[in-house]
Structures are given as structure tokens and as C-alpha cells.
Design goal:
By secondary structure, the protein is mostly helical. The chain has 11 helices and no strands.
């Protein structure tokens, strides 16, 4: 869709955002509880897409030796993840009974199957190949994840940049660590939500629910992040 500037038309707010198209496919026409549930998850997926673009840009900047540019992209990510966490907080407005009613209509579908979230993990460097075997993923989903495995991770791009004695190594390291911490915090908010709505019950897609999410806080996005950091970088 063109912005219309070529024809001398200045698009209005709704046109700029393509709101007619967006709201047509968004699940905002469900009953109020389902609209809240689906809207929160769809909003998270939009944020995940934005995170992926920033991670790709940061990796490209490191590959080109542009440490400051990489930091500019990485520094935005904790705030984005804070916004994602607020969507989980919004779902606390549902009662356990309301959540159960929505959940009963989901079948085996689950946020556990979020391909973009797994892409974020793989792109960063947390490459647990078991995630390729998540039930419910389509062939296209697995192809996207396999493509990420063929790419250089951000973790590896940083290690190569660090070994070339690039500038701002400590700053980049800290920006990656801050994003990692924001992801752990987001997982914790998700775990607290699951605990409030599910108690000790099992999650969808065969996970152990809140217990799995609490354990996921122990994972890091960047397994190699602290390796090879010289004392003069710190």
C-alpha cells in the first residue's frame, strides 16, 4: 500500500497505520474475554516481529564493525520487552473461570508454539534444537527455525566483533545483558500470570504450565556472552 504522497494525498492517521486491514484480521470482534486474550497475544507477536528486525540490524552492524549502531538497536529492546510484559499484566484482568472458558476453545494451540519467539531465541544464540519438535508447528514454521540455525547468531557476531577489538565492546556487552535480563523478567511475568490463572495445572501444548515458565527464567539468550571478555573491557 502506497502512502499516497505521489498523488499529492497526505494519508490520515488510520491510513498510515492501515487500521482497516489490521482490525479486519485482528481478533477484536470476539466476545470481550476472547478479544482481550487474543488481542494481547497478537500485540505480543507484533512486538516480537519488531524485536527480530532490531536483532537483525544489530547483528548486521556488528558484522560491519559499527558498534555504536549495534548499541542503538539493542538499547531499545528492554523497553520493548517491558511493553510485552504489560500485555501479560493485562490478562490478569481475566478471572480463572473466564480464562478456562477461553482456553477450552483453543484445542492444542498454545503460545508455546510462537515461532517468532523461538526465532528470537535462535537468532540471539539460544539454540535448543528440541524446539523444532514442538507439537503443532507447521512445516513452514520449522523451515523458518531451520533457516535461523543456518544464520550467524547475534552471540557469535558479538564474539567475532569482540575478538577484532572493536569499539564499545563493554557497552555492547551490557546492552545484550540488559536485553537478556528483560527477557527473563518477561518470562517471570508470564509465569506469574500462568500461576494465577492455572494454579499448578498443566499448560497448553503439553507443557507443565507455570512450573515450566518459572524454569525458563534460568535460560539465557546469549550462552557465549561472557566468554572471552577481557578485564580491560570491563
Amino acid at each position: 500500500m502506497s502512502d499516497g504522497a505521489e498523488a499529492g494525498h497526505c494519508p490520515a492517521y488510520g491510513e498510515r497505520l492501515r487500521l482497516d486491514e489490521l482490525l479486519e484480521v485482528a481478533r477484536v470482534h470476539e466476545n470481550p474475554e476472547r478479544a482481550l486474550f487474543f488481542g494481547a497475544h497478537q500485540a505480543c507477536e507484533i512486538w516480537f516481529a519488531i524485536v527480530l528486525r532490531h536483532l537483525e540490524a544489530a547483528r548486521g552492524a556488528l558484522t560491519e564493525g559499527q558498534g555504536a549502531a549495534a548499541c542503538a538497536h539493542l538499547d531499545r529492546l528492554p523497553r520493548i520487552m517491558a511493553a510485552v510484559a504489560q500485555h501479560f499484566d493485562a490478562l490478569h484482568a481475566l478471572t480463572p473461570d473466564e480464562f478456562d472458558a477461553v482456553r477450552a476453545t483453543l484445542g492444542t494451540s498454545s503460545g508455546f508454539q510462537s515461532v517468532q519467539f523461538r526465532e528470537i531465541e535462535f537468532l540471539c544464540g539460544a539454540r535448543d534444537r528440541r524446539m523444532l519438535n514442538i507439537a503443532g508447528l507447521t512445516d513452514r514454521d520449522r523451515a523458518r527455525l531451520l533457516a535461523r540455525l543456518d544464520e550467524q547468531s547475534l552471540d557469535a557476531a558479538f564474539a567475532a566483533y569482540r575478538d577484532r577489538a572493536g569499539e564499545d565492546v563493554k557497552r555492547i556487552h551490557d546492552a545484550m545483558a540488559a536485553f537478556d535480563a528483560s527477557m527473563r523478567s518477561c518470562r517471570g511475568r508470564h509465569a506469574a500470570l500462568a500461576e494465577a490463572l492455572l494454579g499448578g495445572g498443566a499448560g497448553t501444548a503439553g507443557s507443565s504450565g507455570a512450573a515450566y515458565l518459572w524454569r525458563s527464567m534460568e535460560r539465557t539468550l546469549f550462552p557465549e556472552l561472557t566468554q572471552g571478555v577481557r578485564s580491560d573491557d570491563c
